[in-house]
Amino acid sequence: MERRRLAGIILLIISAFTGTIAFRLATPAIAFYTRDILKASMLSVSIVSMSFVLARALSSVFGGLMLERGKKLVYLGAMAMMGNAIAVQLYPLTSTWVQVAGIKLLNGFLNGLSWPMAQFVIAVATPKEIRARVTAVYFFFGSIASLLGNYVYAYTIDLGLGGQMWISSAFFVLTGLIMVASYALLYGLITPRRKETPGGERPSLDPKRILIIASLMAVIVAFTSGEITYVYVSEALGLEKARTATLIGWAGFLAAMLSYFASWIADVRSERRMVLLTSLMAALSPLLAAIKTAPTVFSGIFLALFAFQSFRPISRKVLASYHRSSLAIGGVNGVQNLSTFLGGMLFGFAYSLGELHGLVTLNLALLVFSPVSVALLWQGIRLKRRGD
């Protein structure tokens, strides 16, 4: 790759690192603030967490449509990222979980504009033969930052929510500036929409099936998304807040590191087999996490994160070949976020079902995902190559 393209891609990868630190530091801080200081129920924590996801789902599709109207609007995504710096300063001013949920909606809207645009740019700017691996590196750097962000939270607890949000704000501003520089370097390669021609580049797998699998997988792995994960692990295993955050961070980091090999296999071997494998792992993850022991809970979380981290770059690679690639990538972000919202709300409502005691103790809120697991496996088996 020529130097200009390489520099732009590297900057986008760095933006995944800095932006995720900002987001991941804020997530456990807000989770425990809502649960412990504001005394919110688990359902309320789920609403707080999923309000972010719902807003991100809607703005992801809007951002993809908007980008088709003019590629200059990609810079709006960078501005939205910097807008998060202002939004997080409002959290220390809240006195009810409803106010926290309102700010989460704002955060979600801004993130839905910024991150899918970055994913679209890195996908279309990368040569097809290495697209899944480069996109996996992008997500991997985000996972490294997720681990570090959890450590930053653990080591800055004494600063309080206000001090932690100032650190988060600084990283959001830095991320937006890096995105602006990257888009300037890659501007000539940004093609949100192109004509569909018989001899043109086409998706290697059926895009509609990819969207269905993305939706089902996101419903299942919703228990690993946002504030609800920290509260569930802490209460299920009786862990202190700082230890909970660092262990979840390590699970995400290891999952992301191993997901690169899944992307390599998808690039050089078989995309279909890797989608089927990730579907199987995602389907099993809530069943493992439902068993209330440390090895099984963290194994379930690891499988869910590994499946999701592996599937994301493969799905972006497939959809980047679609003639309306910006809408397709914005659409898959929207579908996944909407499904995560539904899965998170289902978990929040089912949390009151309690536990089933026998040889092992099972969390019934996670067992309710079993029908979705079966549907995901069925869709993975039915996945066809484009043109078959």
Describe this entry's structure for a reader:
There is one protein chain. The chain has helices at residues 3-37, 42-68, 74-87, 97-125, 131-155, 160-186, 207-220, 227-237, 241-268, 271-289, 294-320, 325-350, 364-367, 370-382, and strands at 355-357, 361-363. α3 runs antiparallel to α4 (97-125) and α5 (131-155) packs across α11. It is globular, with a radius of gyration of 20 Å. 77% of the residues lie in helices and 2% in strands. The protein has 2 domains: 1-193, Up-down Bundle (Growth Hormone, Chain: A), CATH 1.20.1250; 200-387, Up-down Bundle (Growth Hormone, Chain: A). It is built from 14 helices and 2 strands, in the order ααααααααααααββαα. β1 and β2 form a beta hairpin. The model has no long low-confidence stretch (mean pLDDT 84). The protein is mostly helical. Strands 1-2 form a two-stranded antiparallel ribbon.
